[in-house]
Design a protein that fits this description.
122 residues; alpha+beta; Thrombin, subunit H; six-stranded antiparallel β-barrel
Length: 122
């Protein structure tokens, strides 16, 4: 009896531990997300690479994080929002984690968020 309860407890713990990992996998199947990490002569560098599914020619949305003064409406620290900052196109994926991009429009800057929605039609 005790052995059965112990086995059920272990199975329940394993099931609940797997949920966050599965959710992360689902998110990565619909989004590819990173940031602009450098500005070089060849263009900007984003931390999105072949491991993320990046391919030459993909256009990424660029967002800038804007902080509002004072606490959030929930009172738990500062309030932020994402503001569209333009688009970049992947020119060269040079390893599993990084790619060079060129600006398509807007004013993408260092530390801005880049994101590809895989299910979006352009």
């Amino acid at each position: 009896m005790l052995k059965t309860k112990f086995s059920l407890a272990i199975a329940a713990i394993a099931m609940f531990a797997a949920v966050p990992a599965a959710a992360a996998g689902i998110g990565h199947s619909f989004f590819m997300k990173g940031s602009i990490v450098a500005e070089q002569a060849e263009g900007k560098v984003v931390c999105i690479g072949s491991e993320d599914g990046a391919t030459v020619g993909q256009v990424l949305d660029v967002y800038r994080t804007v902080q509002h003064p004072g606490p959030s409406s929930k009172g738990a620290g500062p309030f932020f929002h994402r503001e569209p900052a333009g688009h970049v196109r992947i020119d060269h994926v040079y390893d599993a984690h990084f790619a060079h991009v060129s600006v398509v429009d807007g004013s993408p800057a260092l530390h801005d968020i880049v994101e590809l929605r895989r299910n979006r039609r352009r």
